[in-house]
Amino acid sequence: MIASLLGVLFDGLAYGMLLFLISVGLSVTLGLMNFVNLAHGAFGMVGGYLCAAAIARWNVPFLAALPLAFGASALAGLVLERLLYRRFYRRSHLDQVLLTIGLTFMSIAVATFVFGPQQQALRLPEYLSGQFSLAGVDLNIYRMFLLAVGVVLTAALTLVLERTRFGAAVRAAVDNPRVAEALGIRVGLVFQIAFAAGCGLAGLGGALGVEVLGLDPGFPLKYMVYFLLVVAVGGTSTLKGPLYAALLLGVADVAGKYYIPQVGAFIIYAVMVILLILRPQGLVSR
Amino acid sequence: MECVFWLVLAAGFWLWPKHLALASHVLIAGLFALSYDLILGYAGILSLGHAAFFGLGAYAAGLLAQHGWGEPISGLLVAGVCAALAGLLTGFLVVRGQDLTRLMVTTAIGLLLFELANRLSGITGGVDGLLGVEMAPLLGAFRFDMYGRTAYGYCLAVTFVLFLGARRMVQSPFGWSLRGMRDNPGRMLALGYPVPRRLIAVYTVSAAMAGIAGALLAQTTQFVSIDVFSFNRSAEVMVMLIVGGAGVLYGGLVGAAVFTLAYHYLSSLNPVYWQFWLGAFLIAIVLFGRGGVLGACERVYRLLRERRREPASQP
Amino acid sequence: MTPALHTSGLGKHFGGIRAVTDVSLVLERGARHAIIGPNGAGKTTLINLLTGMLPPSEGDVFLDGDRVTSMRPDQRVKYGLARTFQINNLFPDLTVMQSVLLAVCEQRGVGIDPWRPVWSRGTEIAAARAVLRLLRLDGAEDVEVRQLAYGDQRLVEIALALACRPRVLLLDEPAAGVPKGESQALFRAIAGLPDDVTVLFVEHDMDIVFRFAQRITVLVSGAILKEGAPEDIARDPLVKQVYLGNRS
């Protein structure tokens, strides 16, 4: 019993970590520029498909394909930001939703056209597959890898945010963009970099997640609710908020599907409703 | 001008007798878009889950008929009440919170109902759909025939009546207050308006209307499948409204017509192409087309009026 | 006689920061009472406490002797407390008449009517016109608010609050942002406020304060430093030191 509980917890945390990595960019976009980017999942999809293609078609090793996924998504984010997103910072949320839904539809269509509508299979390297036994609990090696990567990246993000000048600029800009601008912080540039990084992280998350979340052209829409949930519940002013929200969501989802498979899929909806009723301003308010 | 619009629609029996089924679809979509205009165009509530109410109404009417109660109008009313109840319950979650929260909650509710309908395929017929929906003759006299004549008249009458109701509502103090709450909810609160309550009220009304539209679909096609709850349907109604023009009531009807007809004639193409160009079109609209079709018409009309007023200034 | 508005030991703190401490105000009916104080003194927090936008950490607010501390902001408005905003908080796309009508309709309980068109409501339209006439805005009835001069927009702010038929009117820096040339209209408006309405205004502009206030409360660091008639306040050395500087 304890073994399965630990196993579920472990899986849930890994899953939650993945959600966090993908969603953190969305939180930044909303917090910094008040921009509702519903196409965020599409950046994750880009990373996932690139990683899968790199491994399958160009024989790039898995660990090398991951930074590729990051880079490609970050680049895509940078390009889209300059061409399109920039014009919408002052426009209504409705316009932003329309723009990003349009982009999402286009990305899904392109993915279906290029890769087909089926699930992508990703060949994991040998050393990341299989189980690992620890104190009687069977731990999936890949999920351990996910947790490790997640912890490292979260630590890195926290370090950047709290110890570097760039991080300070980001925090200042989230807090009060006008005053930050007046203090000499180039909020536009800060945002460009933060946005690209967020998209890159989403791509990395997408690539890492092919094994856990699956990957098909419907990915952006399928998981959109999850990303929105993480940001709505976790808030946009801290890093901890979305992290806790994502971990909670991950554990709740996995636990629900494991223990009560009939209604497992609905657990997250119940969690969402409860959280919204109790804390309409998010899990971690300032 | 408005009378012409409705007279043309009424003349549809003679103008497009071979396409009455399609025309009914346009009307149903138009009613759905009209209901969506009330919450998005007037009250400013961003929702990507309005199909939840459409679907609830469809299944309410469909299940009612499947279990023997085939009287159309009462089925319509039951559907409306069911959807309204759902709107009232979920409205509490939707009106608190900002745009992002509203998007998330509405999307989640739509997905939840879709999933629920899928799971309960014993009741809903799942992906294959609800069968055995048999409708009794409308008002006891008009049978739902193969040519869709009764269906068209039925849809037209219902849409017209609800449109009139919506029109009165948006011109009433309550309707005006919706615009106030959309543009400056803080100020409305400071004027004594219980903003969340009023938003829940319009959300409920809109849900009822969407439910009735769904019921019309179930009753006229005598079929319901779970895609009435799909995210695509929620996204499509948003597109329809924006294409036609939000906040002007007729926009929903016009946009629904444009979208449904476009889909009907282009859907024979590869669905991937449809989705791609739909996305591109959406981006184009939001970049260039303020106010949709009706907004563009208004601009053209204004331009023509100014041209006519100063012909002498033309060199 | 019961004061129109009074507070007892009103306080608000955010974590360790005490924004407002032990504020007890008493406003008699028809009073013209000003609150002054340096920036950051807690004036805005006080207004938010009075209107209900912020729940107090301690203390109570009373309107005409009735405890309103647990009432929501919109309930307090219906109870007779209206406010204006320091920065114009209007409906830019509506006309002046439409904006005031919004306020009048809700005040008269017809805001929820979903059937009768607004333009058929003669009583409400007449009431709205009366408010506009009082503020000399009746000529601008059909002008979109965004097209008005800032000073006139400030008057619309007051019109909106007056349309709520308040017993107590809170003016949050009514002169803020108004160019010198447009302040006459504002002075006239404040002077013309009905006598039975109690007016509490927060102000920086000493012209307005000394012209209209019968009593002044000086707020510093969230607490009342001194309260009294304008002449006493102007002469008080402590007040001068903290706030008025070297002005006499």
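Residues 19 and 191 of chain B are 51 Å apart (CA to CA).
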